[in-house]
Inverse folding.
């Protein structure tokens, strides 16, 4: 088959390589700014670029021109920001039987669409309200105790989220947004421990799901300048079965069907219950794929590629699983090229190679060893490398 893969950011080389290894033709469409990134060009029949993905008519014209001489069997978005772009192309090319169209894709990008759909499914989640109507917002703020979060509907991770402690704080943020208010929502903040379930779905069923837990909620890391860390949750803990069950119900209800997903849940300090935070139709970032691979033997990017090729058939089989444990720790660094040679434990299976960053992927036979290393590495990174972005930079990072 011929795959058109969209990527406005550099990621997904393992996806491209797996398709190529399985005999498919890969056409990578990126943006001019990312064209010089080290893409797996050996796996691509062609690498193409447009100025940006925001000009939807220009993008449609470019892809339509491409299809004059090349048949396209699948359109796949490799990054969260490209999910709706790919859906629009499928709609235009009338290929919605090969992946989600506009409405279905919104469930994996639009946080308000996620909230409404999850409510219809009866999934526990924070109280929320859109920002369309003043009277409805006033009623929400009077009924639901704070603090609250004002969230962009289509950003990724914790980008653009503002915490509000009083109704006046919420209204101040709403007025700042102006005409952009309808592209945001407000929800009750649920303090707790943040988990993520990284999974694969085939023919409407979750066939693989790994439960992981962040050491600090992403909002605290993103806005507080902390150090990012996550790790495998011991698989015999009761919360793993609960997370897998809710994740499977949610993805089935949202109609993912085929592909990879990264879904987040908050375990509330107040009642110990899991609240749905958000989901996506993609592989998780920040070296999640590497952590999961070293812990389980499953490379999420490669398996997602195989799932896209198997879409609509019964040809997919999950590879054999390992039962190890993984962890990731990442931080901004004061040094342009940090010297991490002092981190020489055999459990270090991958290192981040990026300017002004320091990070490691860890794998071990026991969760206790992962926890021990994360504690040690976090302290050493904080002492020797850690840098905090200026407040003005955090919003755009």
């Amino acid at each position: 088959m011929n795959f058109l893969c969209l990527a406005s950011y550099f990621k997904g080389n393992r996806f491209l390589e797996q398709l190529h290894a399985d005999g498919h033709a890969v056409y990578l469409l990126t943006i001019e700014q990312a064209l010089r990134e080290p893409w797996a060009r050996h796996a691509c029949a062609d690498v193409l670029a447009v100025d940006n993905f925001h000009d939807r008519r220009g993008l449609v014209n470019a892809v339509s021109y491409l299809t004059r001489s090349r048949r396209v069997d699948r359109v796949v978005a490799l990054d969260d920001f490209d999910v709706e772009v790919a859906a629009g192309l499928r709609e235009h090319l009338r290929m919605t039987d090969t992946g989600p169209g506009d409405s279905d894709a919104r469930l994996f990008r639009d946080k308000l669409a996620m909230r409404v759909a999850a409510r219809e499914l009866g999934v526990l989640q924070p109280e929320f309200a859109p920002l369309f109507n003043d009277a409805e917002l006033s009623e929400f703020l009077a009924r639901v105790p704070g603090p609250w979060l004002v969230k962009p509907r289509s950003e990724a991770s914790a980008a653009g989220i503002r915490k509000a402690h009083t109704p006046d704080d919420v209204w101040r943020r709403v007025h700042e947004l102006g005409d952009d208010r309808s592209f945001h929502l407000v929800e009750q903040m649920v303090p707790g421990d943040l988990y993520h379930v990284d999974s694969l779905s085939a023919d409407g069923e979750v066939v693989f799901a790994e439960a992981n837990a962040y050491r600090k909620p992403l909002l605290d890391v993103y806005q507080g300048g902390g150090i990012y860390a996550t790790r495998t949750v011991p698989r015999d803990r009761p919360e793993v079965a609960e997370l897998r069950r809710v994740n499977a119900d949610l993805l089935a209800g949202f109609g993912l069907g085929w592909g990879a997903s990264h879904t987040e849940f908050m375990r509330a300090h107040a009642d110990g219950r899991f609240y749905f935070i958000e989901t996506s139709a993609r592989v998780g970032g920040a070296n999640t794929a590497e952590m999961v691979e070293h812990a389980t033997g499953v490379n999420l990017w490669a398996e997602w590629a195989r799932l896209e090729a198997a879409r609509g058939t019964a040809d997919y089989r999950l590879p054999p699983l390992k039962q190890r444990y993984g962890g990731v720790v990442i931080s901004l660094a004061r040094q342009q090229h940090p010297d991490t040679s002092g981190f020489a434990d055999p459990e270090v299976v991958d290192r981040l190679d990026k300017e002004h960053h320091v990070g490691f992927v860890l794998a071990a036979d026991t969760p206790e060893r992962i926890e021990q290393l994360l504690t040690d590495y976090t302290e050493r990174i904080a002492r020797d490398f850690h840098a905090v972005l200026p407040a003005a930079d955090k919003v755009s990072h």
